[in-house]
Write a structure and sequence with these properties.
Blueprint lengths: L7 H20 L7 H12 L5 E7 L5 H9 L15 E6 L4 E6 L2 E6 L7 E5 L8 H10 L5 E7 L6 H11 L4 E7 L9 H17 L4 E4 L2 H9 L2 H11 L1 H11 L2 H84 L5 H5 L1 H13 L2 H42 L8 H24 L2 H20 L8 H14 L10 H90 L15 H4 L6
Organism: Ktedonospora formicarum
InterPro entries: GTP-bd, P-loop_NTPase, Small_GTP-bd, TRAFAC_Dynamin-like_GTPase
Pfam families: MMR_HSR1
């Protein structure tokens, strides 16, 4: 549409539509697969510079080419009972009839019809399922149109394929005029009114719009153009073709064409906006599920930590009970041994030491080592189960993701879901690798060595390479050495009344202090080692899902930004649409012409 033909506000509207289209494309730039939308937006905005575009659609053999030839008063378009139109044909004004290929499967036909100076007409292939490539050609061209003439026939009005096609083109927000052709086939009076009502009701109920319907007979209109006199007039009146021409060349004046042309890109942008909004909402739902996946893993880790700490406290208590039992046996040993009645036994220090080892320490060393080893095995097994549970959970989520992929809306979500499922699979593989790579014995030995080293270094200086249990016994065994010190007493009474009880009390006190210190050191060292290993275990899980977690956060921010942009664009589209539509024009009854168009008016194509 030349800018010179537009007043100032119309030019502003033109620029506003281009701005919205640019913002919509920028808003979708973060989504993969929007090339088709970009091309569509480019076409509809660039078409604002062109003439008003009238697109004729319908099933093959519905009379589209014949309709155009009747408007042109000349057989310009090829007609036939087979789907002859296999290309998009654009009719434009020209000083003479010419045909040339403009792009792939699109040809441009110039013809000297006066009305083509204001309107370009597009003839499309049939939309039947017989030739699917023809239907695709038609649908690809619909977004460029400003007004659609949809031809159907009285012998098969509003078929299933027509309804589906109307539903698709209606979603582009286009104004649709329905032409009910071949009324000459009707033989019963009143059938035409029933058919018109049938088409109108179906459009309203199934498609949600109230169309303008023009019943006519292209055949009788063509016959009228071939006759003269009263016969031509009669045929023309019977064809009712004049009502359609009056609408196209009078009702559809310059102001109405401008209004429809401005509304056309808004309808296209609204359609693209709707698809994008639906895809973004679907993506948002998937990301919410992904966020819940991450949160669920974190919750599992927290439960894992609590269960491990609770179980560890119980297991550590069992090891500490070995030391407590040693303490009880030691006190009993001192009470039974360090007394006057065993004065001669006390002289034999080796015997006392042997009894101490037998009665107090006994197999405590072996029990402590076994308890620690059992604790290590338990920790390794629990981490193994943690990874197995996470792997099974992620596998279920990955299967859910595959099912959701079938419901993704449009191509703009495919790459997103592919990336998302790839990350889920990577996490699952990492979990599987950890589970499969666990050398339980090697892990246990390594952790055991760490514990032995920490305990022996903290509790016993110079213990060397002896076992953990043996090192503890070596620590408490020094209490037995103090027993030999009682031989320093010389007076039996003193021994009985003062020295032996005092040394027994002192030995018990020192033994209890050593046991308490040992128990505390053992508790602290093992607690420290446990917490370190528990932290490392949980961190290994977090590290493995870190790429997936970062992906989810990044995509969520992108979705939020896109949703905010789409919200602004929707508001701009609605505001501009209200301004362009303005007050709705009143519907006037079209008076049937008394004189056939072919006779009373000069030909439109000289």
């Amino acid at each position: 549409m030349p800018k010179a033909a537009l007043h100032e506000r119309q030019q502003e509207i033109l620029q506003e539509e281009r701005r919205i289209a640019t913002e919509l494309q920028a808003c979708l730039a973060g989504f993969v697969g929007t090339d088709a939308h970009a091309e569509t937006l480019r076409q509809v905005t660039s078409s604002l510079e062109d003439l008003f575009l009238l697109v004729v659609v319908g099933e093959f053999n519905s009379g589209k080419s014949a309709l155009l030839n009747t408007l042109l008063r000349q057989e310009v378009m090829e007609e036939g009972v087979l789907p002859t139109t296999s290309q998009i044909a654009i009719l434009r004004y020209g000083e003479q009839r010419t045909i040339h290929e403009r792009e792939t499967r699109v040809q441009e036909i110039s013809y000297p019809a006066d009305f083509l100076q204001n309107i370009s007409i597009v003839d499309t292939p049939g939309v039947n399922a017989v030739l699917r490539e023809h239907e695709q050609l038609t649908e690809d061209f619909i977004p460029r149109s400003d007004l659609i003439l949809f031809l159907t026939s009285v012998d098969r009005p509003f078929t299933q394929s027509e309804r589906l096609f109307l539903e698709r083109i209606r979603s582009w927000g286009k104004k649709i005029i329905i032409i009910l052709n071949k009324i000459d086939l009707l033989r019963v009076k009143g059938d035409l009114a029933k058919l018109v009502r049938f088409v109108r009701d179906n459009c309203k109920q199934l498609l949600g719009f109230q169309p303008e319907i023009f019943p006519l007979s292209v055949l009788k209109a063509q016959q009228a153009q071939q006759e003269t006199g009263t016969q031509a007039i009669a045929l023309w009146n019977e064809s009712q073709f004049g009502k359609l021409e009056e609408y196209l060349f009078q009702t559809l004046d310059a102001e109405e064409r401008i209004r429809l042309k401005f509304l056309s890109p808004l309808g296209v942008m609204q359609r693209i906006w709707g698809e994008a909004q639906e895809a973004v909402e679907q993506r948002s739902k998937l990301l919410a599920e992904d966020a819940r996946t991450v949160q669920t893993i974190e919750e599992q880790l927290e439960v894992y930590r609590e269960d491990m700490e609770q179980s560890f406290s119980h297991r550590l208590g069992e090891i500490e009970n070995i030391i407590l039992n040693m303490q009880v046996r030691g006190n009993n040993f001192f009470d039974d041994t360090i007394r006057l009645g065993r004065i001669f036994d006390l002289i034999k220090s080796e015997r006392i030491r042997h009894e101490f080892e037998q009665e107090v320490t006994g197999d405590s060393a072996a029990h402590i080592d076994a308890g620690v080893q059992e604790l290590i095995d338990w920790m390794v097994e629990q981490e193994h189960r943690l990874w197995q549970n996470i792997m099974e959970y992620l596998d279920r989520r990955r299967q859910t993701s595959v099912r959701n992929d079938e419901n993704m809306i449009g191509a703009i979500s495919r790459q997103f879901d592919y990336n998302r499922r790839t990350l889920l699979q990577a996490v699952a593989r990492q979990a599987q690798n950890v589970v499969q790579s666990y050398n339980r014995q090697a892990e246990a030995e390594q952790l055991s060595q760490d514990l032995r080293y920490s305990v022996t270094q903290a509790a016993i200086a110079g213990a060397g390479g002896i076992g953990l249990g043996a090192a503890i016994v070596a620590l408490v065994g020094t209490a037995a050495a103090d027993v030999s010190g009682i031989l320093a007493g010389a007076v039996l009474l003193s021994l009985g009344l003062y020295i032996i009880p005092a040394r027994r009390k002192k030995a018990k006190q020192e033994f209890e202090i050593k046991m308490a210190a040992l128990r505390k050191r053992l508790h602290n060292v093992m607690q420290e080692q446990f917490r370190r290993e528990l932290h490392n275990s949980m961190q290994r899980v977090r590290d493995s899902i870190a790429p997936y977690t970062r992906f989810v956060r990044t995509e969520q921010k992108r979705v939020e930004t896109t949703q905010a942009g789409l919200s602004r664009i929707e508001k701009d589209i609605n505001v501009l649409r209200i301004e362009i539509q303005g007050p709705q024009p009143k519907t006037e009854e079209v008076v049937q012409e008394a004189v056939p168009h072919a006779v009373a008016q000069p030909k439109r194509a000289e």
